[in-house]
Amino acid sequence: MKTKQELRSAYRQLRKKLNPEQVKEKSIAIRSQFEGWLSEREPLTHFHLFFPIDRFNEVNTFYIMELLEQKDKVIYTSQVSKDSLDMDTLKLPKDAAFFLDEWGIPVPQESIMVSPSKIQVIFVPLLAYDRQGNRVGFGKGYYDHFLAKLGPDVIKIGLSFFEPEEKVNAEAHDVALDFCITPKKVLTF
Fold first, then answer.
1. Among 55, 62, 132, 179, which is most buried by a count of CB atoms within 10 Å?
2. CATH number at residue 142
């Protein structure tokens, strides 16, 4: 079994090989898979999104944001608090405008800091994941720390361009996913 560091390196390389058109096509396919998933869960209204860092070829979640806005869902994101592992929860206005912070993360120009207590679904960034829903993130621990503070009923969804690994070496602080959406399917854990 590969270590988390080996998986991070391998999946960073896989992502680097994707050109912008492939990232766009695969991101739109993921949105389409999510739309099918959501159609069976219409009562869900509060969604937390991460936004993509382009240089890392992350899934473009702006397509999902557009879908959620069309369905009048409430959208949140997070911003890292200075000097800690904490993330502040931000509620987005409809048609939010974004700027890139110093790390290249899209940040809303306007938002309201709120409690994360209303979040029902959270999209979780990842590099790799396994058939049990364990994920490998970027290694900073921000999302595991944030997920640990959310209620147990919050639905955790990973987004990936790739298929799962057989097994990821999960640690005690890791929070597993409930679903992972790829361009071809929705995996349930």
1. 179
2. 3.40.50.10420
Exposure letters 75-86 (e unless 16+ CB within 10 A, then b): bbbbbbeeeeee
Question: 1 with 169: CB under 8 angstroms?
Answer: yes
Give the lowest-confidence range in 20-29, 30-39, 136-145: 136-145
Q: Give the global pTM.
A: 0.93
Judged against a pLDDT cut of 80, whether residue 81 lies above it is answered with no
Task: Reduce the DSSP state of residue 140 to 3 states and report it.
Answer: coil
Q: Domain containing 17: what range?
A: 4-188
The CA–CA distances, whole Å, from 28 to 94, 96, 157, 175, 184 equal 20, 20, 16, 27, 11
| Residue in the block written with tokens 């898979």 | 33
Residues 6+ apart with CB under 8 A from 105: 51, 53
Place of tokens 């939010």: 96
Structure tokens at 15: 């992502």
DSSP 38: H
Give the residues across from 128 on adjacent strands.
136
Q: How many domains does the chain have?
A: 1
Res 129: pLDDT: 97
Let me know: does 124 contact 132? Beta carbons within 8 Å. Answer: no
User: In this structure, what DSSP letter does residue 104 have?
Assistant: S
**Token reading at 100:** 């890139």
Query: Is pLDDT of 169 > 70?
Result: yes
